[in-house]
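dude i think i finally got it to work??
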Amino acid sequence: MTDAAFAAEVLASEVPVLVDFTAAWCPPCRMLAPVLAAFAAEHPDTLRVVTLDIDHNPRTPATYGVLAAPTLLLFHGGQPIRSLVGARSKARLTEELSDLL
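look at this
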């Protein structure tokens, strides 16, 4: 994901999009990557998961007030509806988003 593609790929999406704001230097971000891959595989028709590198795409994190990596923002209908900061297990992520999926 890039700043340039964000509006078309996330804000205009008809399904909810979970955006992972990440960075290459971030150990918790690397720990979260397989969790997000597994989570996305369990919800292929109801959710998209995308990753945005905050170092290479600073405009979008600044727009949404992202101050830490990893930060997860769930967008639906072009609006952020849930924010989660920090790495977490798949079970915890499922619990935190179950009411929205």
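The radius of gyration is 12 Å.
im so relieved honestly
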